[in-house]
TrEMBL record:
Residues forming the catalytic site: D55 (proton acceptor)
Protein known as: NAD kinase
Cofactor: a divalent metal cation
GO molecular function, one term: NAD binding
Record family assignment: Belongs to the NAD kinase family.
Binding-site positions, NAD(+): D55, G56, N131, E132, R157, D159, T170, A171, Y172, N173, K174, S175
Gene Ontology CC annotation, any one: cytoplasm
Amino acid sequence: MTQMTFNTKTKVAIIANGKYQSKRLATKLFNTFRDADDFYLTKKNPDIVISIGGDGMLLSAFHMYEKQLDRVRFVGIHTGHLGFYTDYRDFEVDTLLENLYTDKGEKISYPILKVTVTLSNGHQITSRALNEATVKRIEKTMVADVVINDVKFERFRGDGISVSTPTGSTAYNKSLGGAILHPTIEALQLTEISSLNNRVFRTLGSSIIIPKKDKIEIIPKRLGSYVLSIDNKTYTHRNISKIEYKIDNKKISFVSTPSHTSFWERVKDSFIGEWDS
Ligand code: NAD
């Protein structure tokens, strides 16, 4: 956790999904901040972004402000069950307001992923992912070389590959059989999506955790269309010559509050629930 000093009013942006409950809550917060002395409502260059909805809404808020990660801190309010990026439920909004009124600029930060796609004409597209980036080939089996830190590791055949962040490890990565990584571990996780494994074709099979400063490169061996996903967005590219994955030099920061529950508690609440000990 780090300290920040505020000399001026805290600029707050409120982003909500289309659900009735989210819009109602956004109006309540909007009215509260509009009349507050210490806060200033603006979507331009905010200090704090309040996302109302679920994890998907927080992912969208992250992408809206991904170029301002140095200054922005996020807070998530869930209008359904508790999510992974949402510290508050909708009925806890008064607690959130109390915490923001006493806020000293403390933050908790997590690693994100930097993805660079190089097309065969040399054009490069760079994106950031909070959960994961996947690459899949739709028409035929994807064939691609996996290179880890310049080591030509394996030739992959299958549906595709996912590379996730630590906070994304509980999302698609988990469904693919990947490990759950504590978000203070600065590492990326490569997970296979339906790899072909038999006497002829061979991949490692298990997911791989790659430390900070190392890089993963995927080099497609067939021309054609590839579908890339970056969190909740998908893109189709033709003629990809390389995709590179690294931990970004920026992080996502959340407003650090007493409601920011332990990671293991979230994992337990989401996937295990109560049990008789
Ligand atoms: P969405 O908002 O409906 O999210 C799908 C589900 O993933 C929700 O239940 C959400 O709470 C959960 N989720 C999102 N981020 C999470 C995280 N970091 N840890 C644990 N659960 C998380 O749909 P969307 O807006 O399209 O969300 C995109 C995300 O959905 C992707 O980043 C991907 O991780 C996930 N996804 C999962 C699968 C799968 O599990 N088979 C398939 C595709 C996408």
